[in-house]
Structure formats: C-alpha cells, structure tokens
Design goal:
Length: about 240
C-alpha cells in the first residue's frame, strides 16, 4: 500500500488530479458540515425550549438515518428542480444528514457503539454505487459514491473522537456490551466498499487501503470477541462464588 501511495504522489499528473479532487472534496464535505451545524444548532435550541416539538423533530431526524443516500440523490432533483448530476444535490443531501446527526443532544452514556451504524449505512451505499454497471443512464453515480466514501472517512475520526470524549473526558467505563458488535460491521463494510470502489475506478491505492481496513475490522472483531469471552468467564466465576 505504501509503494502505491509513493508512486501515486510522485507523478505530476496524479498530483494535479489529487489537488483538483481535494478541492472538490473540501467543497462537498466542509460546506455541508458548516451548513449542517448552522441548521442543527438553532433546531436543537428550539427543541430544548419546546418539548412538544422535540419528539417530532428527533423522530424526523431518526427517519432521515434510514433513507439510503442514493435514494436521496434521486429525490432532491425532483423536489428542488436541479439537474440530476449537479453537485449541489450532494451538498443538500450531506447537509440534511449532518443536521440530522447533530441536532440530537447526546449525553455521554447515550453515545453507544450503534452510532457507527450511520457510517455503515453510507458505506453500503458506496458499495451499491460501485457495483452498478457502466451505463450512461447511471450518470455520475461513481462520483457520488466517491464523495460518500470521503464522507465515511470523515465520520471515522469524528466517531473515534466522540469515543474518547465519552470514556476519557466524561469517565464512562469502557467494558463489554453486546452493542460493541455494531462497530465491527460498519468498519468491515467500509473496507469492502473501498475495495469495490477502487476496482471500479481503477484506483489501486484505494483497493489496497480497503484491504488494510478489512484487517482492522478483523482486529476489532477479535478484540470484541475476546472481551465477550472474558465477560462471560467473569460472570460464571462470580456465579460460582456466590452462595446458593
């Protein structure tokens, strides 16, 4: 993987493509993030002051989580009146997802591993877009999949930072819970989506990166499995020592 990255960055033509793609990524990820914050903060304050509207607002945010990204990219042009391949559709869709993710106030104890499922849902969409056959009717699905792949990459450090905030800064004990398994699938799906998208676009470094992520998912699986076994053994030991 390292050799692939060195060869990629040493080529002037690739560097030009990289800078162009970086500018597009900043536009399609940073702008929706800022807009999502601008939308989520006042909505969150409104929900805090209006208990009756709170349930409807948070329920709507939960519904947004279940909408596949590709479906949203089809709905937005029909509602807004933009072209099917306009980048503004991506900005609107990611703004909606960011706002839905940020609008809900989260207590440290509530920030459980299932939040990783949000990243897994986006990774499934990337995989679906990468597996679509090359067809003019598909349009820019591969490009949209690449943007969603970058969105998943943005979510990973945020989720890790939230985990540090929960366990290190807020002191929530880190122990085995069954919902820790919810972290394994999204990481593995992101690795598989990276491999398929790299294959579809001929990007070898992304394919190598996806393979590395697959090993990370396997390592996470081993850690969670070991924690589950240790928890089970500890429970059995306590049960045997307790008087009957």
């Amino acid at each position: 993987m390292i050799d692939e990255l060195v060869r990629y960055f040493s080529s002037p033509s690739y560097r030009e493509v990289l800078l162009s793609s970086l500018g597009q990524h900043v536009y399609l990820s940073l702008v929706p993030l800022l807009l999502g914050v601008l939308v989520a903060v006042p909505l969150g304050r409104f929900a805090q002051r209006a208990p009756r509207a709170r349930a409807a607002l948070l329920g709507s945010a939960n519904v947004v989580y279940t909408v596949p990204s590709l479906a949203l990219f089809v709905i937005i042009p029909a509602v807004v009146g933009t072209g099917a391949t306009d980048s503004i559709n991506v900005v609107i869709a990611l703004t909606i997802y960011n706002a839905a993710l940020l609008v809900r106030p989260v207590m440290p104890a509530e920030l459980t591993p299932p939040y990783w499922v949000f990243m897994g849902l986006a990774a499934i969409t990337v995989l679906a877009g990468a597996l679509l056959p090359a067809n003019p009717l598909v349009g820019r699905v591969t490009e949209v999949s690449a943007v969603l792949w970058a969105f998943c990459a943005w979510l990973v450090p945020m989720l890790l930072a939230l985990g540090v905030w929960r366990h290190v800064l807020r002191g929530v004990p880190l122990r085995f819970r069954t919902d820790l398994w919810a972290m394994v699938f999204p990481i593995g799906m992101y690795g598989l989506a990276s491999i398929r998208l790299g294959t579809a676009t001929g990007t070898r470094w992304m394919t190598a990166f996806g393979s590395a992520v697959g090993w990370v998912a396997f390592a996470v699986w081993l850690v969670v499995f070991a924690a589950m076994v240790a928890k089970r053994l500890s429970t059995n030991a306590v049960a045997q020592r307790s008087p009957r």
